[in-house]
Known about the structure:
By secondary structure, the protein is mostly beta strands. It contains one helix and twelve strands. The protein starts with a helix and ends with a strand.
Amino acid sequence: MKRLLCAALGAISLAGAPPNPVTWKLEEAPAKPVKAGARFTVKLTAHIQDGWHFYSMKPIDDGPVPTRIWLAEGQPFQLAGPIKADEPQTLQDPTLHMEVELYEGSAGFALLLRVAPGAAAGTQNLAVNAQSQSCNNSMCLPPTTVRVEAPVTIAK
C-alpha cells in the first residue's frame, strides 16, 4: 500500500521534477587484464544531489522501493558473492510512518565478480544495472533503472 502511495505521489509530482538526482559510476575496474575464472572487485558509486535520498537494498514490508543492483545478461562476468553496501542511515520516515534505511550524499556498493571460465580474451564491457527510487521531503520520483558500463580486459 505504501509503495503504491509513493508511486502515485511520484507520478503526480513529475511536472516540474528535476532529472534523476542520482548519478551512478563504476570505479576501481581492474587496470590489468584478468584471467578467465579469476575474481575481481568493482565499486558502483551513487552520487546523490543535495536534498535527495534513495533507499537501501533491504526490502521492508509495505515500505519504500528498495535499491536493486544486478549484472546485465549476456556478458562473461558473474557475481561471485553478495553485494556489500555502505552502511545506510536508519531513521523514522514521517511520511511513511516507519523506520527506513536510506542514503544521502553518496553510496558505494562493492561487487565481487568472476570472469566466466572459458571467456574469450580481449576487452569486454562490464554492464551493471542499478534501480533506485529518489525522494526528497516533498516528493518521490518513479523508480529508475540505469545501466553503467566499464571496460575490462580478459587475459589470453
